[in-house]
Amino acid sequence: MGRQTPLYQRHADRDASFTDFGGWEMPVEFDSIRSEHERVRESVGKFDVSHMGQIEVTGSDAERLLQRLTTSDVTALDPGEAQYAAITDEEGIMLEDTVVYRLPDGETYLFVPNAGNDEAMAERCRWIRSEFDLDAEITNATTDWAMIAAQGPDAPERFEEVTDARYTLDRFEIERADVAGADCLVAATGYTGEDGFEILVPEAAATTVWDAFDVQPCGLGARDTLRLEMGYLLSGQDFDPETEPRTPYEAGIGFAVKLDTEFVGRDALEGVAAEGPESKLRGVQLIDRGVPRHGQPVTTPGGKEIGHVTSGTMSPTLGEPIGLAYVDVAHADPDTVVRVVVRDEPKKARIRTTPFIDR
Amino acid sequence: MSFDIPEELRYLDSHEWVRTTDGTARIGISDVAQDELGDVVFVELPDEGEEIDAGDDFAVVESIKAVSDVYAPVAGEVTAVNEALFDQPELINEDPYGDGWLVEVELADPDELASLLTAEAYADEIDS
């Protein structure tokens, strides 16, 4: 039995089907992936994302610690702002992607590692603290917080029904707000490409907030198809230090790497930035009938292997088979025609930039 | 959750069904299987004229979240494939025992049917 979120019983009562994800027992589907996906694109849906980690860093060197930990420039954050970043090892290989929040108090930094990586990332913070002799307090607060994502074009309007806050937040801002009587942190972030919020809810108030926000519940299945249409990375699949070791440049998130800061892995990445990566994560869209899936080879029309698929599905929005694949840069230009080998059968496919949909 | 398990069909515990009429066997996947898979988005079927053996993984059904092999309950030559599924794979979700059928085969050995599960035995399998 995996870890359970404070909303587990709610999901079980709603007849969700469950799956293990990063050591957590998570709802994968409530009604159908397709209908949940469509609801988010067209109106609004809610997700239990309490499996995401929360690591809090405070103290006089908190900013310095985050600056060493992440590839982005944490000093650019004003209180109440957030940014996307990678966490790399000394070789510049991605260990994690994350969002770093500077809370409205200006003192506390909070970052959100992916499911199952919370303790490893807290440990990494402690290592940086001792390596660079920093004064900081590091707390793995993952079980203190539930996290609920409200996503979709109607999310702001519907969300105002359960909070006193006026919803004027810009993307990547965070503020404190009373939500259904609970003292929450509300961030204008997400993983779907739609407007919406991620709400950090004190664990004890999780069910109250979940119930108050009375919209379509959505599982990890729809979360995956929504993020894939946007080309957002999935940790452990599109990059992984063991099974898919990649630099942020290969993974297409060079925008989150600030080489004028002093993060772990910076020197290695400076070299990669100068020479350019050998392969790049690209969108692929099948022209032939089929569905690209994790692990399938990508070849030239002549059959030379040039990469492989890391994620794939049938896009519910487009009705087209789409995926993400690492391909050699020589074959990574948009509109290059390649083959994706599905069960030994080469299927014609086209290289695309992401996102797959206009957002 | 209760599933539709028509009395007159025969089943495999891997969730395929067979309907026989005069030496021809129509094969599909059960209500349980389509529910487990969720939204079906793609099917790969054998060609007409192909010979399949009992136990072969002769077809593939893919939903948004999963890829599933389909096993042949009986041996025989494929005499028809449900081409409607190429454009409307969701027929498998909507009508797994009707419009969502996969292939028809000319039975090589009608005695094979005796080894398949009855509806009652299949229902017991699901419950256990």
End-to-end separation of chain B? 14 Å
Biggest β-sheet: strands ordered side by side in the sheet of chain B: 1-2-3-9-8-5
Roughly how many Å is the radius of gyration of chain A? 20 Å
**Which structural class do the helices and strands of chain A define?**
alpha+beta
Provide the CATH topology of the largest domain in chain A: Gyrase A, domain 2
CATH superfamily of the largest domain in chain A: Probable tRNA modification gtpase trme, domain 1
The percent of residues in helical segments of chain B reads 10-25%
**Ends apart, CA distance between termini of chain A:** 38 Å
What is the subunit organization of this protein? heterodimer
**Uncertain spans of chain B:** none
Number of helices of chain A: 8
**How many helix segments of chain B?**
4
**CATH architecture annotation name of the largest domain in chain A:** 2-Layer Sandwich
Whole-number tally of structural domains of chain A:
3
Per DSSP E runs of 2 or more residues, the count of β-strands of chain B stands at 9
Characterize the largest beta sheet of chain B: strand count, sense, and whether it forms a barrel.
Answer: 6 strands, antiparallel
CATH class of chain B: Mainly Beta
Q: Estimate percent helicity of chain A.
A: 10-25%
Work out the radius of gyration of chain B.
13 Å
% residues in beta strands of chain A: 25-35%
Q: Output the helix-strand order of chain A.
A: HEEHEEHEEEHEEHEEEHEHHEEEEEE
Molecular structure report:
The complex is a heterodimer of chains A (359) and B (128). By secondary structure, chain A is α+β, with helices and mostly antiparallel strands. Chain A has three domains: 8-53 and 143-230, 2-Layer Sandwich (Gyrase A, domain 2), CATH 3.30.1360; 55-140, Aminomethyltransferase beta-barrel domains (Alpha-Beta Plaits); 278-352, Aminomethyltransferase beta-barrel domains (Elongation Factor Tu (Ef-tu), domain 3), CATH 2.40.30.110. In chain A, 20% of the residues lie in helices and 32% in strands. Chain A contains eight helices and 19 strands. Chain A has helices spanning 8-13, 33-42, 62-69, 118-131, 155-160, 206-212, 220-230, 266-275; strands at 17-21, 24-29, 45-48, 55-58, 81-88, 94-102, 109-112, 137-140, 145-151, 174-179, 182-187, 196-202, 216-218, 279-286, 297-299, 305-314, 321-328, 337-342, 345-352. In chain A, strands 10-11-12-9-3-13 form a six-stranded mixed β-sheet, with helices on both faces. Chain A has a six-stranded antiparallel barrel with strand order 14-17-16-15-18-19. Chain A has a five-stranded antiparallel β-sheet with strand order 5-6-7-4-8, with helices on one face. In chain A, a hairpin with a 2-residue loop joins strand 18 and strand 19. The longest helix of chain A has 14 residues, at 118-131. Chain A is globular, with a radius of gyration of 20 Å. Chain B is globular and about 35 Å long. Chain B is α+β, with helices and mostly antiparallel strands. Chain B has four helices and nine strands; from the N terminus they run E-E-E-H-E-E-E-E-E-H-H-E-H. In chain B, the strands form two sheets. In chain B, strands 1-2-3-9-8-5 form a six-stranded antiparallel β-sheet. A three-stranded antiparallel β-sheet of chain B has the order 4-6-7. Chain B has one domain (10-108): OB fold (Dihydrolipoamide Acetyltransferase, E2P), CATH 2.40.50. Chain B: It comes from Halapricum hydrolyticum. Chain B: Belongs to the GcvH family. Chain B: The glycine cleavage system catalyzes the degradation of glycine. The H protein shuttles the methylamine group of glycine from the P protein to the T protein. Chain B: One of its GO terms (biological process) is glycine decarboxylation via glycine cleavage system. Chain B: InterPro entries: 2-oxoA_DH_lipoyl-BS, Biotin_lipoyl, GCV_H, GCV_H/Fam206, GCV_H_sub, Single_hybrid_motif.
